[in-house]
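Inputs:
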Amino acid sequence: TTRYTGLIERYRDRLPVGADTRVISLGEGNTPLIRLENIPRLLGRSIELYAKYEGLNPTGSFKDRGMTMAVTRAVEEGSRAIICASTGNTSAAAAAYAARAGITAFVLIPDGKIAMGKLAQAMMYGSAVIQIKGNFDDGMRLVKEVAGEAPVTIVNSINPYRLQGQKTAAFEIVDELGRAPDYHCLPVGNAGNITAHWIGYSEYACGGRDCVTESCTFCNGDCRFVSGGPVSASRPKMVGYQAGGAAPFVRGHMVDHPETVATAIRIGHPQSWDQAWQVSRESGGWFDECSDEEILAAQKMLTEHEGIFCEPASATSLAGALRDIRNGKIPEGSTVVLTLTGNGLKDPDTAIAQCTQKPLTIEAELDSVKRAILDVL
Ligand code: F0G
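Outputs:
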C-alpha cells in the first residue's frame, strides 16, 4: 500500500509540477463520493444522486485543492507572501498552506460578513487578517490593484494554478464512477469551481492523439495530454446554482449589492464570468437561483436525512437539484453529482439559528432523563 499524500502526487502527470518541485500539501483531495439513499426515496424519483463531500478537505472546503497547487507554485517561483480576497474559505485555505510553506498570507475579508469558523481559521493559522468595510467584490478589486504595487502573489482563482488544482475533483469522480455523471450541480459564486470542473472533465474526455470525443473543444485535435487514452468519452451537463440575492448569472449582468445567508457565495461580480458562460454553453447546462429559505431547507434535509453537514452555500447545489429533479429538467434515470463545497462546522451560528428544536435543559437526575426520552419516543 502507498500512503495518500495529496492530489498533486496522485495526479502529478496532469498538473504543472516538475520532478524537483517542493510540494506544499496537507493531504487534500480524495474526498468521499457519498451515494444519497434517503433523499431520492423521499423525492419518489429513480435517480442516482451522489454528494462529493468537499467539506472533508484539510481546512474544510474545496479551496484546498486549488491552494496546494497555487502555493506550491508561488514558493517555487520564490514568492514570500500571498494575498487573497475571500468570503472565508479561500482565506482559511491560504492561511493554512502559507503556514505549511513558511510564508506570509494576507487575507481581505468583508467586515462582519464571514462565518465564525472561517474567521477563527484565518486567525489561528497566523495570517494577517484585514477586514474591509466592503464586500468580496471590493476586496477582489483591491487585491488586484495592490498586487501590482507590492511583492505578493494573488491566490484567488484568477491565479491559473488554482483551477489546475481544483480540476482534480472531476478526475476523482470519473475515476470512482468509471464514467462522468450526466449532470454535475454546484454552487456558483466567483465561478472558478465550475470552470475548474469543466477543465477536469474535458481533459479526461479528451484522448489526445487518439481523441474520440466528437468535436472535442478541449484539444482541438492537438491535446497536450497525449499520455493517457480516453478515460471517459463523455462529459456532464454543468448546472450552476446561485443564491437569489447574489445571482449575476441568472440576471445576465453583474449585481452591485449581493445579499444572501450563504455568505460564501455573496458575490455580485464573478471573476470567471466569460469562462463560466462558456462552460454552460459547451456542456448544455444552465444557471438557476435558489432563495435563502430553499438553501437552508436543503442544508437541513442533508443533515437530517443523510447525516451530511455542509455549509449553507454548499446546500445550494441540492436546493437547485431538488427543483430540477421534481420538474423533470433532470430526468429519471440520470446520474447526478452534487458538490458539497464546504463543511457545516464552518458556520455554527447559521446552523443553530435555523434549528427550531432547541436543546432541552433538565435536572441532572435519572427521572428527568427518563421523562425526556419517553417524551420523544
Ligand atoms: N461554496 C463555498 C463554500 C465557497 O466558499 C465558494 C466560494 C463557493 C461555493 C463558490 O465557488 O467562487 O468557485 O464559484 N468561496 C470563495 C471564498 C469566494 O472566498 O472562499 P466559486
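Remarks. The first strand starts at residue 33 and ends at 35. Confidence is low (pLDDT under 50) at residues 223-231.
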